[in-house]
Amino acid sequence: MSEALAVNAAELTKTFGSLTAVDQISIKVAEGEVYGLLGPNGAGKTTFLRMLLGLIRPDSGTLEVFGRSWDKHGIAVLDGVAGFIESPKFYPGLSGRRNLELLAGLDGGVAPGRIDEVLDIVDLTDRMRDKVGGYSFGMRQRLGVAASLVRDPKLLVLDEPANGLDPAGIRDMRALVKRLATSGLTVLLSSHDMGEVEQICDDVTIMRSGTVAYHGSIAALREQAPAQAHRISTTDDTAAEALVRACGLEATRTDDGLAVRGPQEDIDALIVDIVKAGMALRALSLDETPLEALFFMLTEPAPDARTPRPAAPVTSGAHR
Ligand SMILES: Nc1ncnc2c1ncn2[C@@H]1O[C@H](COP(=O)(O)OP(=O)(O)OP(=O)(O)O)[C@@H](O)[C@H]1O
């Protein structure tokens, strides 16, 4: 069974003083899948990845990468593994291509043409002779992916690769990870962005304060998500709220009107009823997506007693 797993972490725990950063986390990443490690800042994602890459040792639990463990196999655990934690570092005075040549040299060389190939994959061919010091942040992140690909890995570990990028950089990074995913590479991607993980990943572990809030497929997560929320503002929100409830829909008062959840056809009917009742519509917009709403429910404490959070963990699949 473990041969088919790229990563098999069981009950992994890491403490820093009195803080338990990762608390008995179990994660199985199948070979060839794109796996998301999702959670807000401080959830323990980077700590998990650092244990995976052997940068820190777990206090307890077991960890295997392609069936190899740090205890039994030492640095050989990283055979076929590449990636970076936080941001990759390069020599700013050297070109992107020269940086990759140096890294490849440290690894004992590389097949002819591989450096050009990976620069092409990350769309840096045109800029490969420019100094890295002149690269944008997004280009440096993509060069980091290229540096990982030079090793021709079977598992690529990416720690929030889109963090700090502008919208175009985020779009390019997501497209790159999707392209890599279709090539059969196993990708373990940490992120705090539900939308990113939804677009890119097959399976996800959602972390909250070092623990698992959800394990399972994105498809199963979608089924548990609440209905799409709409923001509605009218000339009389109190009367509109009464109408919402009369229609059997959920409503929450917000600073700028009402947040209403329900199937799209019910929302359409509600808008007609609001206008028929003599109220003018001042605003109608989509709120957070259903999956984003579920992510916040799973990872944040309830803001007040009117919006109870579901009991966690919500679990799908047989991981834990
Ligand atoms: N070396 C360390 N010493 C002390 N505390 C640490 C150390 N590394 C991480 N922590 C703490 O462990 C917790 C988890 O941090 P971690 O970086 O793993 O979270 P994260 O989910 O990756 O968040 P972010 O998105 O902010 O990087 C945080 O409270 C962090 O402050």
UniProtKB/TrEMBL annotation:
SMART domains: AAA (SM00382). Keywords: ATP-binding, Nucleotide-binding, Transport. InterPro entries: AAA+_ATPase, ABC_transporter-like_ATP-bd, ABC_transporter-like_CS, P-loop_NTPase. Residues 7-234 form the ABC transporter domain. PROSITE patterns: ABC_TRANSPORTER_1, ABC_TRANSPORTER_2. It comes from the Bacteria. Transmembrane segments: none annotated. Pfam families: ABC_tran (PF00005). GO terms for molecular function: ATP binding; ATP hydrolysis activity. Signal peptide: none annotated. The keyword DNA-binding does not apply. Belongs to the ABC transporter superfamily. This is ABC transporter ATP-binding protein. It comes from Streptomyces adustus.
